[in-house]
Amino acid sequence: AAGIWQFMESTGRSQKLVVNNIIDERKSPFKATDAAARLLKENHMILGRSWELAITAWNHGPGGIKKASRAVGSKDLARIIEVYHSRTFDFASENFFSEFLAALYTERYSDIIFPGLPRQDAVNLHEVTVSRKMKVDEILNATGLSKEEFSNINPDLAKFVASKQPLYRGLRIHVPTDSKSAVDFLMAGDRKRKSRVIGAND
User: What pTM does this model have?
Assistant: First the structure.
């Protein structure tokens, strides 16, 4: 498992994340969070629109939760925990929803629980889809980022950047929002060049 949502490789790929030997989009908090929301929505639909079961399925899997629900004859999580016994439905699965509520409570009331806790400034980033094969240096020149800074906001691409391979068309990257116009110009400039070439051949 990897990333803030602890996706297994197969789960990440099933949610359209790129996972290979040099790119691991599970490690992008932005891409992985989008995938996590989709997976949670799927669990919610599969498990009769029960958020308690959908969240528990994050740990135990929707198939496992459906099996437990059928065995008990109930969709009530408390009843399932009380009655259902399985080698795989153990402490972690039984307590997953309670732990989620504890984390949610802690976040909601963090100012009271942790008064004076220093907070980082909000990250202001923009997602861009690479329009053509290009060197990382082209993005760095447009954004003013160093390779280290680029890798910090694109942790899923850290190994890729270190490999010195060019970015490929369709790859999603994140850049600072205040660099958005420069990166958009870089991408649009490429399309304009192609248009001129096509026009010259007409």
Answer: 0.85
Task: Kindly report, residue by residue over 102-134, the tens digit of the pLDDT.
Answer: 999 999 999 999 999 998 888 899 999 999 999
- Is residue 38 within 8 Å of 15, Cβ to Cβ? yes
Average pLDDT, the chain: 92
Residue 82 CA to residue 155 CA, distance in Å, equals 41
E strands, the chain, are 125-129, 172-176
Q: Residue 144 — left, alpha, or beta (φ > 0 → left; ψ -120 to 50 → alpha)?
A: left
Q: Which of 169, 146, 142 is nearest to 158 (CA)?
A: 146
Which positions ≥6 away from 19 have C-beta within 8 Å?
9, 12, 13, 25, 26
**Cα separation, 110 vs 92, whole angstroms:** 24
Query: How many other C-beta atoms are found inside a 10 Å radius of the C-beta of residue 15?
Result: 20
- Give 92's contacts (C-beta < 8 A, 6+ positions apart): 59
Tally Cβ neighbours within 10 Å of residue 119. Answer: 8
pLDDT mean over 30-36: 97
pLDDT above 90 for 174? yes
- Measured distance CA(77)–CA(83) in Å, rounded: 10
